[in-house]
Amino acid sequence: MNTLSIDFGTSYCAASYLNEAAQVVPIVFGLNKYNGRCYKFPSVIQYALDSNNQEQKVIGEIALTNLIQSNYGDSSIVSKIKTELRETSGYIINGKPKKSAVIVSDIISKIKFQAEKQSGRIFNRAIITHPAQYESTKQDLMVKAAQACGFEEVVLLEEPKAAAYAFLDCYKLQSDKGAIVFDYGGGTIDIAYLWIDNKTPVFKFAPVSQSKCGGEYIDLLLHNIIMSKANPCANEISPALLDTCSRMKVNLSHSEQETIVFNGKAFTFDLDTFNKLIYPKVGIAISLLKDVVKQCENCNLPIDYIFLNGGSSRLNIITDTITQIVPDAEILKYDGIGDDLAVAIGGILYHKNISKGVSNQLDGTTTKSKNVITKNDILDKIRKRYNEMKA
Q: 302 and 310 in contact (C-beta within 8 Å)?
């Protein structure tokens, strides 16, 4: 059974699998403008209507660009669905209801198709990562969405646990050491403590999590501050301004001052002012870390390393504050394959670790219920699926 690890993120999605040599291979979803490989794509989907009033699915970078260009929104575009899953109400798309499971399934289908096209194999098992304290109803929805894509088996894995496997593989750390995974992404902060035992993570207590405090919500906080000054009467969200706030946030990780121009007005932020403005969201992550550190102290568990993962963990205020809270710990950032792929890669490493001795190779033939399926048969199935998606 071929396994695909999927990081279905609030902001981006990524995936990886094991090749014939049991090496980790990330899925390539395209090229950037510098012809560099893109190992992730925005978790944005658009159901655009063609000339015959039929829905066409646009997923990833183009959907995000269309969202930004629409400025005040477009009812055919859905973003941040992972955090805002509407289990019962669903979404209204082009004037018609569409269930969340269908939307998630459409995005996962893109991941599965691209993985099968790249690898030349059919993936029938999925490892899907999720926040540490993701509601059971949302977990069930993710499973149903993956099954609708053709996955026969779906395994759910907490994101900080997946990240731990990637960090341990990347840094080859010594045994008998303690580490905290600080996974701060677009929507959620996840924190887990692990003990390294013979290069394997042993989680001493359950990971903790808090939603709606990550990078997407920091951007929204900045957006609302600027909008209240530029256009006090407006009560809508401007995707264009949100995108600008996101860019400023990234730039302020490397500079001391940035300026945003919106509605003809300039708004300048120095690093200190910026940190104070975003603290209502960042403070949630910091408070959660303090709780975990306190729990470690109460249990006499050492903290030798801090694994920083997720885009929001790169904020200056985060690294500076962590250094103050745990001054003796070594801060490590993921430096493995690709950019920001620790969770997707950690998922497949988790699978590799728990299934030692189970072959995951594609050697040209695979036997299933007395039928022999050749690699060419698999490629034909992928091409057929691709043609169906185009149609």
A: no
Q: What 3-state class would DSSP assign to 192?
A: strand
Provide CB contacts within 8 A for 23, sequence distance 6+: none
AA identity, residue 182: F
Q: In this structure, what are the phi and psi dihedrals at residue 312, rounded to the nearest 5 degrees?
A: -70, -20
Helical pair 159-171 and 342-354, crossing angle rounded to 10 deg: 80
Amino acid (one-letter) located at 195? W
Whether residues 219 and 271 share a domain: the answer is yes
Compute the average pLDDT of residues 15-22: 96
Distance CA 381, CA 121 (A): 9
| pLDDT for the residue 195 | 96
**For the chain, what is the domain count?**
2
Examine the domain organization and report whether 221 and 272 are in the same domain.
Answer: yes
Q: What is the pLDDT of residues 251-279, one digit of tens each?
A: 998 899 999 999 899 999 999 999 999 99
DSSP 321-342: HHHHHSTTSEEEE--SSSSS-H
Confirm whether 250 is domain-assigned. Answer: yes
Q: Which two tokens stand for residue 74?
A: 């477009």
Determine contact, residues 364/6, Cβ cutoff 8 Å: no
Q: Is residue 321 part of a domain?
A: yes
pTM for this prediction: 0.87
**Token output for 174:** 């010594």
d(CA 336, CA 342): 8
224 in the same domain as 324: no
Domain presence at residue 195: yes
In our burial notation (b when 16+ CB lie closer than 10 A, e otherwise), range 157-196 reads bbbbbbbbbbbbbbbebeeeebbbbbbbbbbbbbbbbbbb
For 178, the domain range is 170-211+292-333
